[in-house]
Amino acid sequence: MFRLLSSLIRSLVVAPFRAAAELFGLLQHASASLDDPENAQSQKNKRLSLVASAPAILGLVAFAVVTLSSYTSRSKVQARYLDAFHRSLESDKGSSTIHLAERLFRTGPMNAPEAALDYSRFLASHDELLKANAIIEQIAPDDTPGLPAAHEQRAIAFSKLLSRGASSDYLRTLGWHLKQAGDPNSEGLWLAWANYYRLSGQIDRSVRALEGAATTNPDHWFSAADLYLLDGNMDFAKRSLIAAANAYRLRLGKNPLSIEDRVQLALALARLGEHSQASETLRAGLELAPGNAVLLKGANQLEIAKLEQRFLQSDSFAERLDSLREMLTKSPDPSNVYPKTVDLWRRDRKSTRLNSSHE
Question: Dihedrals φ, ψ of 351, to 5°?
Answer without folding.
Answer: -65, -40
